[in-house]
Design brief:
alpha/beta; Aspartate Aminotransferase, domain 2; 48% helix; 3 domains
Length: 500
Amino acid sequence: MRKKLFSEPLGKDEIFRKLREYSIDDADPLSGRLFTIAFETGLDELKNIAYEAFRAFMDKNMLDFTEFPSAIRMEKDIVDVAISLMNGDEHVVGTYTFGGTESVFLAVKAARDKFILDKGFITLPEIVMPVTGHPCYDKAAEYMGLRVKRVKVDNETYRVDVDSVNEAITENTALIVGSAPNWPFGTIDPIKELAEIALEKNMWLHVDACVGGFILPFMKKLGEDIPDYDFRIEGVSSISLDPHKYAYSAIGSSVILFRREFYKMFSQYANLKWPGYPIVNPAVLSSRSEGPLAAAWAVLHFLGEKGYIELAKKVIAARNRVCRRLGEIGYSIMGDPTVIVAFTSDKVNLFRLSDEMIKKGWYFLAQRGISEMGIPPSIHLTLTPIHENIVDNMLKDLEECTSELQKIPPSDVEGVIESLGLIMSLITPREMDIPTLSKLMKDAEKYLEVYGPKLLEAFGLDKGLPREMTLINQVFNSLPPSITELLVNYIVIQLYKRGV
């Protein structure tokens, strides 16, 4: 049933009663029991300062910095800090955005526009990137008319295979991407080797340091073996890094840096063709609250270098304990972890493991893998400072769950799903041209209208998000991505439509 605006206003107590009711199934992001998405220090004073700064500036709009010049002053300070961490010189400039995806959009737009202007004609620009690169590049490509070519990673190091990058490059390549580190496995791509290719071929190289930008420099100071990945490497054109990750700021905080001022010109949007106010947008969004900006500024100044080094020590300690214990329990660690640890197993159903750990109150991220590239399903753990205090409890529960799951044989359903996935892979085209995609969408609309509700019921999604995701994850892991993406889009539309 569609909701209508209440005819009478609700009182404060009733409003917050309903909000508590809505959030009853939410995980607690401050608990330290999440090993993905939440970046938590456990420092109450830091949270309070961020909240106060957010509230003080939440009603100020970054759209009109002539009315609120505080936006320029705070952004300059944050960008300057990011430039110093990335070893940029006086020519490097940047923009504060509301997230890593927005930063990536600006990098892709700048690289695309520069590529087209250098070419002198319109063509279909391409992004060459490892399969471990974040999907926000595919999203940016879909929005802005580029093509993405994903290449393999080394199956031992889980770093991009440089030769594969070189082979994938054509005269249409506008952008090469490397990660520091990548999200699935926490491994750092060989940025220096990618930069050599970019220089040789006169191409844009973007380094995605959204995860690592605000912690890898401090880990390096603590003696960690962190390879160079920043502006010290000639050939790096742009870098993205997120304060809302390991700078521990409020969510909605990222920075995109450009090696040259004119590169930023390609990323901005200006319009004086209408009779209204002059529009100059450094970022994708126009109206933006200064709240997240002020929170980021406050947290950076509250912690300082000393604070970030102390927090990096805690992350390193937690990571080392996790890696050591995972090996003892019998899991295989994937690559050389930094702040993210990914592990796999050929003896345990990792999707079931994720469900069992949720029952014990621990939230893992199950990853589907890519069988044709030799990447198995895995579990992803993002480690943050708060985990140093509680990681031993998590590992104890993990060992117990592992022991129990090893006694359970694969179910018949798992075999059926795997067979279905194999069949669908054989009949689904790997490359989708426009006619094929058009037919797929028309067929999907027809069949989902009839069978969609039954599908939701079979997955247990008709009543909301199920507590156990094993079946859904196994289906997603087995089916071809193009089919899975259709299903996921349909499911999400239905969940938001129903509000469950």
